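Run log, item B.
One chain of 325 residues. Sequence copied directly from the ordering sheet:
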Amino acid sequence: MREALFIKQNSERWKQYELNKSKDPDELADSFISITDDLAYAKTFYPNSKTTQYLNGLASGFHQSIYRNKKEKTNRFVTFWQTELPLIFYKHRRQLLYSFAFFMAFCLIGMLSAMYDDTFVRLILGNDYVNMTNDNIAKGDPFGVYKFGSSGWMFAAIAANNIFVELRMYALGILCSVGTVYNLMQNGLMLGSFQYYFFSKGLGLQSVLVIWIHGTLEISALVLSGAAGLIMGNSLLFPKTYKRLVSLKRGALDGLKIAIGIVPIFLVAAFLEGYVTRHTEMPMAASVAILATSFTFIIWYVLLYPAMLNRKLNLLQTDIDETSF
């Protein structure tokens, strides 16, 4: 059968499967079997076509739906962070890369602007903050700002502010991603000028050992927030084979899952800032250990583990395809 005729005979059924997935396990199973049969046929006669790629994605979606609806002993709360969120990271790895690239570019712009314009740091960070930090440097305690107030109050205030910022960054993705990119620009310029300010004072290494105790997780989560907004915005701009509204709903849901899923990272970062960063004279080994642990966790959970999980899912899909033959 020619591919065009194969598509013509089955496209309406595929669209129904795509738009009206039932939550009933038996109906899901029947639809999944039908799709895998079509996929097996397409792989045999049109192995490199877009039709085969489309059916493979549709079959994977049904497999995940069945997996989610299957009764299991594992708590749903646990499987979200163990399986679902990492797979979303992998699915939208391009948006993660774009968010990181935007943020780093704006950081670099912030550093260069601060380097060549003496007024830029005050423009971005504010006169009050710069004056206070200059006073602290003169007193021999350049990071004294982290010692103000009680640890508990500082933790709560920072956590609330960071979560508000990340939800806003996600929500502004609805403006065709422009709002999210603007927020990435604001935060990137701030970080770049902020970090250069300490290097210009001869406190570069010390600032890294102190500020990045909490900054490693905080900034990483901020980049992930940017990715959540870009996912929603790009789903509106580039709906692909879906209707624009359907694409937006899918993108908004995936972005929201990321925004909710990274809240614990912000909470840990706020805890570190409120309770640990204030100990600016801690041994270098302790600072390095915290930095290395935080960095390793982000690389593993956002990049390595999702890739491993996706590979396992593909192997399982291959086994299902072979069985369906």
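Observations after the first pass:
- The CA atoms of residues 22 and 28 lie 6 Å apart.
- The chain has 13 helices and no strands.
Flagged for discussion on Thursday.
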